[in-house]
Design brief:
single chain; 6 helices
Length: 183
């Protein structure tokens, strides 16, 4: 029980930092991301996950940013994807910052609840995983989302894209906790 309290606290710390960056960018750029189609958001997440994997394998970065900002980007792009799934073309492209924060909080609350349920059932197995495995799981989820998108959202037995975005958020949070970023 103590470990789950620790996980919840660590999770909140990571998400708070991601949210603060998200809201600062929303103040700078507005909600320009509303123009992105689902496939474009998925591709942005792919770019970030692929960069992490490349850096994990090469151990050298020629751009002065490590993997931590990329995991943060995955979390925030997944939140964008979840928000976009909820909104329609009838919703405005530019959203007030208060609405952006409300939607961010809503999607994180749903995602954290999923994490807590899975942590209960899996016994926090992620704590014994390597960060590189979490990266691979994120990449696998991206490829699943791409396949569902290519199939125009039709699945036979699979969960939808929303659940995959939530899993990617949770894997990225776990990676940041394991890297001791934002703790």
């Amino acid at each position: 029980m103590i470990l789950q309290t620790t996980t919840g606290t660590q999770y909140d710390s990571v998400i708070n930092n991601c949210k603060q960056l998200f809201l600062k960018k929303a103040k700078d750029y507005g909600t320009a991301w509303r123009i992105l189609r689902p496939e474009s958001i998925t591709d942005q997440i792919f770019i970030k996950a692929q960069r992490i994997r490349t850096l994990e394998e090469k151990k050298v970065s020629k751009v002065n940013e490590g993997i931590v900002p990329e995991y943060v980007g995955i979390i925030n792009y997944c939140i964008i994807a979840l928000i976009q799934l909820q909104l329609t073309d009838a919703d405005p492209l530019e959203l007030p910052i208060e609405e952006v924060e409300r939607l961010y909080n809503l999607k994180i609350a749903e995602t954290k609840s999923l994490m807590e349920d899975k942590n209960h059932d899996y016994g926090e197995a992620w704590r014994d995983m390597r960060v590189s495995s979490l990266t691979d799981l994120i990449l696998m989820k991206i490829f699943r989302v791409k396949q569902i998108e290519d199939n125009k959202g039709q699945t036979i037995v699979s969960e939808g894209v929303g659940a995959n975005y939530q899993d990617m958020i949770n894997y990225a949070v776990f990676a940041l906790i394991k890297l001791e970023a934002y703790n």
